[in-house]
């Protein structure tokens, strides 16, 4: 599934950032998959399919038994002496090693505590400096947009990383639908506040001291870039609660904490909005939080990262961290003239 419009910096219809599916899956599986998706219609992916059909579809996609697929063809033309081959992180790693402090601070807490999380009914509001405020319900999230798959690297500020096949739609597309006012300078995002469902919001210790609801923000130029993605699915299936169901932001060039989960509000504004990790520890977590191997966290190096799911049971492969997590071609222009040491 290739991005359908705009964003055609790459060859043909394929945006230059994309980790192409035929580089992730063997050719035969890739072709089958494309035909099946075409036959069903793109919108059939994810939540609109009953569980069993999804499982069957996923078998056709190659099934969960397969070893992680090799991903080649990434743009490592930047000064990088390491010849890395990225691999899609196994599904059970992506869904069991999470940060979602609303459900607890340890990596397995979200999987353990979020399974009963209710996403229906859901309301996502797009409001503020827009022509037409929008309210999307759960069904709208999977039917109002042509869903596409994007394989993105995810780099947590804690120096671990994954390669994730998301399903969703572009944030810019949604913002264009609402019509952004020319007074807008920033976009603010907010996670659901529901202490009955989210134990970390009831218990300060369990919630890691964050002041809830979890909030995040982007400049308007960042938000309108081609990369920001609203994910509603993962590995061709509905997004699991621990990964931010029913809809979460994905910003592949920024540290993972910017990729806010279970979003209920997107507010276009003319002020830089507060962000949760910056409020908690401003000297450690900035507003921008762009992945940058040259600017260390005050307590650890950001020069390399642990690739989750690789390197065997007790160790993980360490790989060098790339500037903007390897997405400089798409986003470096946004920061021209900005001192990235100061605006971390
Ligand atoms: N609402 C909310 N969003 C969140 C977080 C959180 O604790 N609460 N954790 C962030 C962090 S630190 C990371 S690394 C990613 C992890 O996403 P994943 O669990 O899907 O890998 O989610 C981000 N989004
Ligand atoms: Mo993170």
Automatic annotation (TrEMBL):
Gene3D superfamilies: Oxidoreductase, molybdopterin-binding domain (3.90.420.10). Residues 117-277 form the Oxidoreductase molybdopterin-binding domain. Mo-molybdopterin binds at residues 98, 101-102, 156, 191, 243, 248, 259-261. Pfam families: Oxidored_molyb. Binds 1 Mo-molybdopterin (Mo-MPT) cofactor per subunit. It catalyses: L-methionyl-[protein] + a quinone + H2O = L-methionyl-(S)-S-oxide-[protein] + a quinol; L-methionyl-[protein] + a quinone + H2O = L-methionyl-(R)-S-oxide-[protein] + a quinol. Keywords: Metal-binding, Molybdenum, Oxidoreductase, Signal. One of its GO terms (molecular function) is oxidoreductase activity. It is an enzyme of class 1 (oxidoreductase). InterPro entries: MsrP (IPR022867), OxRdtase_Mopterin-bd_dom (IPR000572), OxRdtase_Mopterin-bd_sf (IPR036374). Its cofactor is Mo-molybdopterin. It comes from the Bacteria. Its EC number is 1.8.5.-. Belongs to the MsrP family. Heterodimer of a catalytic subunit (MsrP) and a heme-binding subunit (MsrQ). Part of the MsrPQ system that repairs oxidized periplasmic proteins containing methionine sulfoxide residues (Met-O), using respiratory chain electrons. Thus protects these proteins from oxidative-stress damage caused by reactive species of oxygen and chlorine generated by the host defense mechanisms. MsrPQ is essential for the maintenance of envelope integrity under bleach stress, rescuing a wide series of structurally unrelated periplasmic proteins from methionine oxidation. NCBIfam families: PRK05363.1. This is Protein-methionine-sulfoxide reductase catalytic subunit MsrP. It comes from Shewanella electrodiphila. The lineage of its organism: Bacteria, Pseudomonadati, Pseudomonadota, Gammaproteobacteria, Alteromonadales.
